[in-house]
Design a protein that fits this description.
Layout (H helix, E strand, L loop, with lengths): L1 E5 L8 E5 L9 E10 L2 H8 L10 E2 L3 E9 L11 E4 L2 E2 L5 H4 L10 E2 L11 E5 L3 E3 L6 H5 L1 H15 L7 E4 L5 H12 L3 E6 L5 H6 L4 E4 L5 H8 L5 E6 L3 H9 L1 E9 L12 H6 L3 E4 L5 H12 L7 E6 L3 H9 L6 E5 L1
Parallel strand pairs: 11-12, 11-14, 12-13, 14-15, 15-16, 17-18
Antiparallel strand pairs: 1-2, 1-4, 3-5, 3-9, 3-18, 5-6, 6-10, 7-8
Bound molecules: zinc ion.
Zinc ion binds next to helix 2.
């Protein structure tokens, strides 16, 4: 098969489009012909070596995949060749203490499609049959591929972790990102009011169109001050944070008493300072979260199908142009998701 892989760490120039070994499915796995695969920031961490692929190089990125079933392993039942599917990107053992508690995203053996295994920047990808979710006919492959990581993670962060309620105020960092564009819509669906940040003025209207009430250009304005002004000096109830560094540290200052910061990524840096006085004196909650459950994925797909949530697709590149797609994301030119299609 053809794949867009990398053999060395670095920038977009390291992405090579070439022949690569076909995935070989075990009896409990399914082979999927990839129709669409979304790019994520974790792809960039894998590529530049901040999160080196656990199985080594060469590696194929791509954790958000839709496609059709090409073949099934001998033990797989209930799935048929040609069926439209979306791949749930988290792998769990099903046997450890955390899996047995129903918290599969903190499985001691947790892994991601496209990180711990080769992913969807390819014509074919394999996954356990347990990770295969039917893609409703009404949903395009492209729209489906924008859901399983970015939108699901935002859903789990706001609904399951922060438990956002109607009337609350939510600060979403980076409206232009996949996670940000999803989080704005989900917070609004929960009945919350949203303030968000962008890095360029040409993203302001875009953020408003998703439902943000107040949009702050973080390069020219102080988002903490803006959040305080917007809430009448009170501060926001919830922050969705996925940048790290100063953004993490300052996000905490934007919270009101009993506020919750949900951290779902570290796109700029893995580190962030925390002024502990704010945390204990205001009884703040710092919540870590990753991905969500298959049931939540089905719920989100249902909301997308009903038109209550809209996957925001910036641009679709052919698989062979994966290098240009990666550069587009690294340049932060995207408003929403960037996809590869084949
Ligand atoms: Zn487990």
């Amino acid at each position: 098969m053809k794949a867009a892989l990398f053999r060395e760490h670095g920038g977009a120039e390291k992405i090579l489009y070439e022949d690569y070994r076909d995935p070989v499915v075990s009896p409990a796995e399914v082979l999927v012909r990839v129709k669409a695969c979304a790019l994520n920031h974790v792809d960039m961490l894998l590529l530049d070596g901040r999160f080196p692929p656990p199985e080594g190089l060469p590696h194929v990125n791509g954790c958000e995949v839709t496609g059709t079933i090409e073949a099934t392993g001998a033990e797989v039942t209930g799935l048929r060749r040609g069926q439209r599917v979306v791949v749930f990107p988290g792998f769990a053992c099903g046997r450890c203490e955390y899996c047995l508690r129903g918290e599969r995203t903190v499985c001691v053996c947790y892994g991601y499609l496209g990180a711990h295994k080769d992913g969807g920047y390819a014509e074919l990808v394999k996954a356990p049959a347990a990770n295969i979710v039917p893609l409703p006919e009404a949903l395009a492959f492209e729209a489906g591929a924008a859901v399983p990581l970015a939108m699901l993670t935002s859903w789990h962060a706001l609904v399951a972790q922060a438990k956002v309620r109607p009337g609350q105020t939510v600060l979403v960092q980076a409206a232009g990102s996949g996670v940000g564009s999803a989080a704005i819509q989900i917070a609004r669906l929960c009945g919350a009011r949203v303030i968000t940040t962008v890095g360029a003025d040409d993203k302001i209207e875009f953020a408003k169109s998703l439902g943000a009430e107040h949009v702050v250009n973080y390069r020219t304005q102080d988002f903490v001050e803006e959040a305080k002004k917007w809430t009448g000096k009170r501060g926001v109830d919830v922050v969705v944070e996925h940048i790290g560094g100063d953004t993490f540290e300052r996000s905490v200052y934007a919270l009101t008493r009993l506020g919750k910061l949900v951290t779902i990524g570290s796109h700029d840096t893995h580190w962030g300072r925390l002024d502990l006085r704010h945390v204990y004196s205001k009884n703040l909650r710092i919540l870590g979260t990753n991905l969500g459950s298959i049931l939540e994925l089905q719920t989100v797909l249902d909301h997308v199908m009903q038109g209550r949530l809209r996957p925001v697709i910036d641009r679709v590149f052919p698989l062979k142009d994966a290098r240009a797609a990666v550069q587009h994301v690294l340049d932060r030119k995207n408003k929403g998701k960037v996809l590869l299609a084949s």
